Amino acid sequence: MKVLLAVLKQIHKPALCTGNPRCLSSGATSGLLPLRDEAPMVGSSPELVQKLGSQVEVRTDFITEAEEAAFLRELDPGLKKKRYEFDHWDDAIHGYRETERLRWGAVCEEILNRVRSTAFPECSQLLGPVHVIDLDKTGYIKPHIDSVKFCGSTIAGLSLLSDSIMRLVKEDTPSEWLDLLLSRRSLYILRDQARYKFTHEILKNEESVFNGQRVPRQRRISVICRNLPG
Ligand code: OGA
Ligand code: MN
Q: Which domain of life is it from (predicted)?
């Protein structure tokens, strides 16, 4: 049942975003980072956005509406047989159901191969099954770091059905944080320090605000590829 929850190791108390009033967007550093001008990231300082920005990618519109529909056709029947789980206070995830899948239909397999070739080096050994999390509209993922025992240096996820905010907070320095706007049909990639030194979380609907702009949460399905520890 709890297929991959074993990979979600440490649960952290939500960190306060100290010094939040002036969110600095990557746009504010556009003189330094022309290529990342449009990166949907805001963080605690321009330095952090620049430093961590190289280890975090968000590719807007990575899949088309038709491709999103193909995932839904493949995943929804199985997901609908499960109930959303809300009541395990110690879980890293609240209001979710999940599955993992090794074999995919041709359309989804092709998209996943695009994700793999975008996110991972060719020599990278990938975790066989792809992890799927279906978050209810009221669901959210608490701050955690994926298990270093089971997962390698890179995490790549597609977001289906809803926009959401992923927040990264430095484990030993909670004043350092980065918010990512994960738009519907985008791909995010976390690498290296962003994956090992920062917790990540998906904000609940009530807290889902990006750079001062409200981002309503709907039901959200994520499709996550990981590599194996080196
Ligand atoms: C996880 C996780 C993020 C997402 O399953 O470890 O952080 O996009 N998921 O669902
Ligand atoms: Mn995770």
A: Eukaryota
